[in-house]
Write a structure and sequence with these properties.
The protein is α/β, with parallel strands linked by helices. Helices cover 34% and strands 26% of the residues.
């Protein structure tokens, strides 16, 4: 499929505009308006305001009821201050498309242009889902599903893509089956009795209790988890209420994340961690409030569908440009779609070591080789047409 030069150019321009005007999760007001305007210009039927700022569009080919498939792109940005010195640098201080959602959105709009131009050459309907709030729980996907995004009409399959800096632009990668982890947030408050640091016998030291809890909780992973089902427990923030070099505080607070690839083990681990932390604190004279906020489920790529996607991608890009990827302990709310219908979530190569474009996502210097935009638009349009033609 040869992508017209004007569509590639317009997709690059769209990506740069979106990169300059990022908006945080649940605040994508102008982004939603911009997407709706572009679809209107293309003459594509759409609904703006799904899950507040989301946009859903339909491109109908011949015999539109024959088959329906969905393509998804997320639209929100991150609370990061951009450090890149580029003409399209973020104009919104403290907000940046550091996870590539500007790429996902512009790519889906570029794919829409391709499919609209070819609508008389395929049968069925393509549903375009421009989803808000991927970066923040409960996740825009869960909200859109509750509001009926997978109904009227109902797709038989859904596809999504995500930027992947370690992979060179021009390539894509994927993995069938279990691919990405569930993600839960952990909030812990360990309470003791503060006092003078030189008189610990008069106190109940919550810092010492916390140290024991942190060490013990890692045994949940090293000794209780089945090694065939990976899981990760990380605490990324710890601070005390008060405290100094010679002051034992009354309370210590922790924040962490738990990731798993098995839903049964995921919830078993929740109970184990909570009981372990609370009983350990009590045994040492203190107390512990252990709260787990359930986040995104694991992401499962339908094996049969992903096998077909890989073969079709090879036909389009060549075998040397389609790679197999390992599982990832990161999380994505595309998982909500994959829990209710066959889906494939694949990675789009965006790196270019020769140009110095190597920064990971979620960093102040993340950027892409814009060659990736030709691949992102073409592959998604190709996969949609091939799936409808089956």
């Amino acid at each position: 499929m040869l992508i017209p030069t004007n569509i590639i150019t317009e997709t690059i321009q769209t990506r740069r505009y979106l990169h300059q005007h990022p908006e945080l999760s649940y605040q994508e007001v102008e982004t939603g308006k911009y997407i709706a305007l572009q679809l209107q210009k293309m003459g594509i039927e759409h609904e703006h305001g799904v899950a507040d700022n989301g946009v859903v569009a339909l491109i109908q080919g011949k015999n539109p009821n024959k088959k329906v498939i969905a393509l998804r792109g997320d639209i929100d940005a991150l609370p990061i201050t951009e450090a890149n010195d580029v003409p399209y640098k973020s104009k919104n201080e403290g907000v940046m498309h550091a996870c590539g959602h500007d790429v996902h959105t512009s790519s889906l709009l570029g794919t829409a242009k391709i499919l609209k131009a070819l609508e008389q050459e395929f049968e069925g309907t393509v549903k375009l889902i421009f989803q808000p709030a991927e970066e923040m729980m409960p996740g825009g996907a869960s909200i859109m599903i509750k509001e009926g995004v997978l109904e009227n009409p109902t797709p038989t399959a859904i596809f999504g893509q995500h930027v992947h800096p370690p992979l060179e632009a021009g390539k894509i990668g994927m993995k069938g089956g279990m691919y990405m982890a569930s993600a839960d947030e952990i909030y812990v408050s360990v309470k003791g009795q503060g006092g003078h640091g030189a008189l610990p016998h008069d106190c109940i030291d919550p810092i010492l209790i916390t140290a024991h809890i942190l060490t013990a909780l890692q045994q949940v992973i090293s000794r209780r988890a089945n090694p065939t089902s990976p899981s990760v427990l990380t605490f990324g923030k710890i601070n005390s209420t008060g405290g100094s070099t010679n002051v034992i505080p009354n309370e210590v607070k922790l924040m962490g994340t738990f990731r798993a690839m098995n839903e049964k083990w995921r919830f078993e681990a929740h109970d184990i961690m909570k009981k372990m932390a609370e009983s350990m604190a009590e045994a040492m004279g203190g107390s512990c409030d252990f709260s787990i906020v359930k986040g995104y489920p694991f992401l499962h790529n339908d094996e049969a569908l992903t096998k077909k996607v890989k073969a079709r991608a090879i036909a389009y890009l060549g075998a040397e440009n389609v790679v197999d990827l390992p599982i990832r302990m990161t999380a994505e709310d595309f998982s909500y779609y994959s829990q209710v219908m066959p889906g494939t979530f694949y990675r789009l190569g965006t790196g270019n070591a020769a140009k110095g474009i190597t920064s990971p996502v979620h960093t102040t210097t993340f950027d892409i080789d814009e060659k990736a935009l030709e691949v992102s638009t073409g592959v998604m349009a190709w996969l949609a047409i091939q799936e409808l033609s089956e």
